[in-house]
UniProtKB/TrEMBL annotation:
<keyword id="KW-0442">Lipid degradation</keyword>
<keyword id="KW-0378">Hydrolase</keyword>
<keyword id="KW-0964">Secreted</keyword>
<keyword id="KW-0732">Signal</keyword>
<keyword id="KW-0443">Lipid metabolism</keyword>
<dbReference type="InterPro" id="IPR051238">
    <property type="entry name" value="GDSL_esterase/lipase"/>
</dbReference>
<protein>
    <recommendedName>
        <fullName>GDSL esterase/lipase</fullName>
    </recommendedName>
</protein>
<comment type="similarity">
    <text>Belongs to the 'GDSL' lipolytic enzyme family.</text>
</comment>
<dbReference type="InterPro" id="IPR001087">
    <property type="entry name" value="GDSL"/>
</dbReference>
<dbReference type="InterPro" id="IPR035669">
    <property type="entry name" value="SGNH_plant_lipase-like"/>
</dbReference>
<dbReference type="InterPro" id="IPR036514">
    <property type="entry name" value="SGNH_hydro_sf"/>
</dbReference>
<dbReference type="Pfam" id="PF00657">
    <property type="entry name" value="Lipase_GDSL"/>
</dbReference>
């Protein structure tokens, strides 16, 4: 606990004294006194930790899909093998948002909205609304069954918002939302599990050019980000679409890829990302008192893949948890899959998602990176930013 960390901080200072000759009660009373003395130094810093409200897909789902009738689930082994248990996170350990909120000083991870324990004062620290298989468009991920797409995630936040206002009042709620970090990680499934769905979407791609599909995504997402602002969000991190052509599933699905990334999904992702950056600039200019931040995860992840050896990885193609396929990207990670011994040596955990080791690198660059990684400011700067009402 946070108090425990303060207690031991105080005790470590006290151990410089010679306690061998002290009566036990005197020793304990001085330990307690010194512990209390050091509480302000260590504990009060935690009061500045911003609430975290998370929207997105399986890259940041903390377990919402556990409560849905869907094929997109991760609450079974070997998922979470380095987390302690399979919680519904689609990786071996922590997600990017888990790592970020811990780095900002939180000793608790943001709880999934659908969990029955996400109630009361816990909600004031933030809520995770993300859902595996979801996307910007409501048709995205329909092959999986139930999923909570971005429009529905915003509906769920609107409900949370009203609950918070009823508990602490409108003024205090507005202050909480003004200082909170809102992050939106979406768009990948609109490509992987919509426009580029193998076989199923072949006809659509012949009828709908990628430019038109991207325009549809962008116009819908602009409305969603604007609605988030209207609901009180002011510090909003917008994650772009990563190099989806480089995930093991895409390498597997594209017979022309050979030993490289699948070209077309990456090209469409970059087409979308270019327009998304313009949207973020426009929102910053037009929505008063807000700070939208554009996080270039495409650039970060592509750099990791291209230079994987320099980051300490041994494989950038084969997922750690694999079962079938030329690179192990055909079948989702499950109890029958083979799991690598050293997860820290793999960029990908399964056919779709990074390992915790890769997530740590991504999170570090979003937290403290320069404007080539995250623009116009990084997440640490955003957390410390004081916005006018």
């Amino acid at each position: 606990s946070l108090f425990s960390s303060c207690y031991f901080h105080g005790e470590s200072q006290f151990k410089t004294e010679n306690r061998s000759a002290m009566p036990l009660l005197v020793y304990l009373s001085q330990v307690i006194a010194l512990s209390i003395l050091f509480i302000p130094e260590v504990c009060l810093a935690g009061k500045n930790i911003p609430a975290s409200f998370v929207f997105g897909d399986s890259l940041v789902d903390a377990g919402n899909n556990n409560y849905l009738t869907t094929l997109s689930k991760a609450n079974y082994d070997p998922n979470g093998i380095d987390f302690g248990s399979a919680t519904g996170r689609f990786t071996n350990g922590r997600t990017i948002v888990d790592i970020v909120i811990q780095a900002l000083g939180s000793d608790e991870l943001t709880s999934p909205n659908l969990a029955p324990t996400t109630r009361g004062s816990l909600v004031l620290k933030g809520v995770n609304y993300a859902s595996g298989g979801s996307g910007i468009l409501n048709s995205t991920g329909k092959l999986f069954g139930d999923r909570i797409n971005v429009d529905a995630q915003l509906d769920n936040f609107a409900t949370t918002r009203q609950d918070i206002i009823s508990w602490i009042g409108e003024s205090a709620a507005a202050k909480l939302f003004r200082s909170a970090i809102f992050s939106v990680t979406t768009g990948s499934n609109d490509l992987i599990n919509n426009y580029f769905t193998p076989v199923v979407s072949n006809l659509e791609r012949k009828v709908v050019p990628p430019e038109d599909f991207v325009d549809t995504m962008i116009s819908r997402f602009r409305l969603q980000l604007t609605r988030l602002y209207q609901l009180g969000a002011r510090k909003i991190v917008v994650i772009n679409v990563g190099p989806v052509g480089c995930i093991p599933f895409s390498r597997e699905s594209d017979p022309t890829a050979g030993n490289e990334c699948s070209v077309e999904p990456n090209e469409v992702a970059q087409m979308y990302n270019l327009q998304l950056k313009t949207v973020v600039d426009d929102l910053n200019s037009n929505l008063q008192g807000s700070r939208f931040v554009y996080a270039d995860v495409f650039r970060i992840v592509y750099d990791i893949i291209q230079n994987y050896g320099s980051y300490g990885f041994e494989s950038e193609k084969v997922p750690c948890c694999s079962l079938a396929g030329k690179v192990g990207g055909l079948i989702p990670c499950g109890p029958s899959s083979k799991v690598c011994v050293d997860r820290s040596k793999y960029v990908f955990w399964d056919p779709y998602h990074p390992t915790e080791a890769a997530n740590i690198i991504i999170a570090r660059r979003l937290l403290s990176g320069d404007t080539s990684d995250i623009f116009p400011i990084n997440i640490r700067q955003l957390a410390n930013l004081k916005l006018n009402t």
